[in-house]
Amino acid sequence: MLKEERHHYILDKIKLNRKVLSSNLSTELHVSEDTIRRDLNELSLNGLIKKVHGGALPIDNKAPSYEERSNYNLEEKNIIAKKAVKLIREGQVIIMSGSTTNLQLAKIIPSDINATIYTYSLPIAIQLTEHPSIEIIFIGGKLNKPAQVTVGLDVVASISQLRADLCFMGTGGIDITKGMTEPNWEVSHIKKSMIEASDQVIVLCTNNKINEVKRYPVTPINNINTIVTDIKPDSQILQPYKEKGITIL
């Protein structure tokens, strides 16, 4: 990867995640940490990032919009969606979280599938209105405008009364020791209720979320049935999850 391409990758990632770590970038970009440090120094000198010990932070405090997050890692999300859609069966009841990967999944559900989908995501609900045979049940509550999802006790209470065959959920991070975690407290509680209401828990996870830990716990790793990722299932990084009995797609 050329230097300019690395710089674009770093800037995109820091805008999305609000920070980057040199060690993670080194692994993701397949270059040495010295190379990453030089990249961060150059971006910092150009006033594009704020360099800190072990990584960097954004200059501005504005969180990325939903549209910006939707377009980030789009190729990886499409790979995941194409794998996940094969898990959907006729007549199922499904809960979908508000992840941008789930939005890509919603776009490619076959037109001949009849199913009921509950979601608290406004973009996913709108996307599913284009499907001829899906019954959509939108879970109302307080709207989180940047994330375009409803949050709060009303959402948790509604989900707790459901019984679903599957839940498809994105994640802030997944780790073999810490399990699934989220950066947002309200979202972490919604996802706990999704897991409790579902027979099968399916996590849609781009490679940058593997072995990532966020602030708020959602569930231990042994409560997850399937991880769908853009990484090849035989990748060494996924081996510990297989050993826990999790299906990897």
Automatic annotation (TrEMBL):
The keyword Transcription applies. Keywords: DNA-binding, Transcription, Transcription regulation. Residues 3-58 form the HTH deoR-type domain. One of its GO terms (molecular function) is DNA binding. PANTHER family: AGA OPERON TRANSCRIPTIONAL REPRESSOR-RELATED, HTH-TYPE TRANSCRIPTIONAL REGULATOR SRLR-RELATED. This is DeoR/GlpR family DNA-binding transcription regulator. It comes from Lutibacter aestuarii.
